[in-house]
Amino acid sequence: MAECHPVGYQWVMEARQRGAKVFHIDPRFSRTSATVDRYLQIRAGSDLVLTGALINYVLSNELDFREYVLAYTNAATIVSEDFRDTEDLDGLFSGYDPETGRYDTASWAYEGDTGQTDEMSEGDQRHAEAAGSDSYGARGAGSTATPPQDPTLSHPRCVYQILRRHFARYTPERVAELCGIAPEQFAELAEAITANSGRERTTAWVYSVGWTQHSVGVQYIRSAAILQLLLGNMGRPGGGIMALRGHASIQGSTDIPTLFNLLPGYISMPHAHRHDGLDDYLKREGGDTGWWGNRRAYMVSLLKAWWGDSATEDNDFRFDYLPRLTGDHGHYATVMGQIDGTVKGYFVVGENPAVGSANGKAQRLGLANLDWLVVRDLMVIETASFWKDAPELETGELSTEEIGTEVFFMPAASHVEKDGTFTNTQRLLQWREKAVDPPDDCRSDLWFYYHLGKRIRQRLGAGQVDPTDRPLMELTWDYPEEGEHRDPSAAAVLREIGGVDAEGRPLGSLRELKPDGSTSCGCWIYCGVYADDVNQAARRKPRGEQGPVAPEWGWAWPANRRILYNRASADPEGRPWSERKKYVYWDAEAGRWTGPDVPDFEEDKPPSYRPPEGAKAQDAIAGTDPFIMQSDGKGWLYVPSGLADGPLPAHYEPHESPIRNTMYGRQSNPARRTVDRPENPYNPALSPRFPYVFTTSRVTEHHTAGAMSRTLPYLAELQPAAFCEVSPELAEQVGLENGGWATVVTSRTAIELRVLVTNRVRSLRLGDTTVHQIVMPYHWGYGGGGLVTGDVVNDLSPVVLDPNVYIQESKAGTCDVLPGRRPRGAALRALIERYRDG
Amino acid sequence: MRGRKGTVAGGWLSRWPVIRQLQGEDGRREAARSARTDALRPRVEEADSVARSVCPYCAVGCGQLVYVKDGKVTQIEGDPDSPISRGRLCPKGSASKQLVTHTGRQTHVLYRRPYGTEWERLDLETAMDMIADRVVRTRRETWEQTHEGKEVRRTLGIASLGGATLDNEENYLMKKLYTALGAIQVENQARI
Ligand code: SF4
User: How far is A743 from chain B (nearest CA, A)?
Assistant: First the structure.
């Protein structure tokens, strides 16, 4: 965090000065490790053994916050008798199909919950084949509102007992054996987090892509969620699980997604085989209880925002104008489509996949096989110039004269040359004012897409409109134009996103959204960002003039709530759990929830409220249920539907690992997604040819694939060379010299890097084996206007994906290391072939 | 900060910082000053306008103040009012003026024709028209009305990959336009 989110880290340091104990768990020693109470070095790819053991520690010592767990989680809920755990099936959950490598999730359901068991349901195969679990960014999967429960927690099939059995094998001994963390270190961590949780205290977990970029990444986060729910740390000040996101508006890019499987607000894109028409779609997309029960209002308001008057009740609000998915249309599938020649045209906008995506070579082979490519950036990045400087030209795999791709480089406006909002890592939208006009041909992406859309519409609207073009011709695409460049008004776009009523007046909050077409809203979770016709994201009341929650600085979704699920900061009766941790609570006299934050709950719903029989949406949520986006209002320790690889986290080794999985008879995540093609060869698990573990990382002075940092003199000077950090033991074993060169080899390619030998990377002793880890920041590339250049670290990584969200496993792979620089040209290919063939 | 007046008696030589520092005065304080440094004014004082902005690198979202003079960015500093950053910026945020103003930035449209070996210049309007033509053509050629007997109304011929420094408004127009075009392979750094 000190390294990649430095200014955010000041708050951790402040907390530490005030007595907070800080642990840092990471394969690499960074600036964070240097400033905490305890640093625990962990083997990359083994985190679930550690979090699982912490869960086991809490359960077997009954250290859970019992009152919170009973009232606010699904601990007491009874699960179907068809469910079989990894304990019963040696590393598999029930429902696994070895042919397809996918789960049928029906048996994971709550007892008596048969509504979710057909082939079209959430979590099932078609759902899983289109990264369906991604849609839970703002809600849970569907379930019954009132499943059977055993409040004594003794029923053998209640979630609490299933958890106890499931995690029993996660012991400190396993942590030592698989993570390389000694039992005393584990004990200190376990004691600290449990002692620091409960009525009076809370513990927070912070993670970043070190947890997500794994073939079992979603379950890493799930394990933290289980731990935090058991300890009562969700929805309370100082608690939570903080996802530190790496880019200025990466949160915004998921909320208003440019992602294949989502529409704005985590609404799923319709699937040709799962959905027929709007009603059918809505029926299959989640439960009718909890706030998500209002999804018709959210979807219809989105369709109205896009197709305006053309969208009416009679035509399903133009639901059929949405194109349909039939499977995986994600980033890596798209690249394979480029190599196969099905994808002809490609827009790359502020992104540099030739350097930043896994298996860079496959990326570049894809680019070389396009008809046309449009790259929009500040610099001529490697993705734009690949035909001139890709490493494959040197190895003879590509040649400039044979690359038919037509390339347009369109210079972009910088962040000060346009106005608009970023959504930061805490869901906070902050409006940026434009300082100056962009120079020369530089334009904002808003300008580009708006004017491209206009041009396309002119071309298609010239004669008789073809039925396939109606979605374009009827699209609302009339934003006010400003200034000499005729920029579309970003404020007008934000106003559309925030939603308006039938008279065009901005909506105050998402509670005002209607299912009948009388409201329109481009992103339901952002509804209210233009309340009172004021750009709420532009608010800048200085911090000195408001309290620490600072509700008048920017605007957070949803409804400007700063801590989600904050109803859980009060006990079931609505009283603060303690004076020390007082946050949002029920004011009986006033008949409303109050506190320094906006309550994440209906303001006037008393704690005593119990839903009547057959209640829907929020009316089905009791006054004691804080998790209002879930069908049952509970925090899910156990996930009965919606996930592709199991209702509980289980430790599997990375796809490429030098260590045998001693937890189960399954080496790697049985549901992981592999891309088995010649462009994407894998290192075999446990291969002596690839004995070392590598992980990729960042440093403070650079930014991701580097286009915004290695091009700047200040930053290039501060971190001038691509390097790998290794332990003295490994350096000695391989013959590496500090400051010299190393060649790192995987089945994809070999790259050369400067060597940094330090004691900060330790070689880990796991039982009787020693594992050496290599840490490589990935900011460099061979071109891109970089003042400092270097080989592309991501060229080493394989494309193997988490089955829920299709993120690649770039944080734990295997490799070999050789001293000296890599071979050039054909000799490089020969080296890789030797490694591949063994 | 101490007073602005010279503190050492005598002629220009004795006021020369080098001499004063050699004589043992602290080179990080008064003895660093000279008539020239005293005449320097911070760039921010002369700005014609100040825009409230946000750092474009990581997702902490530090507040920035962008100082402008004569239509040019002259300085970017942390915004002390921000409850997130309290005026601070890390090395990247502090270098962001260079990001905006450095000479290596490409500000013109470039075009590489199929099988070409060099970049060529193209004017912006022409490039926009050419791109629009290609979108229309590729969409027509790769249009898929049905797939395995189901209506899909889409094209798999056009794809997009966006970075996560795009504004919400930009992502919104992108998704809206692509969806209306029937392009579904629309992805973002957020997947990666
Ligand atoms: S200044 Fe540094 S910490 Fe702050 S947003 Fe920018 S990159 Fe992140």
Answer: 25
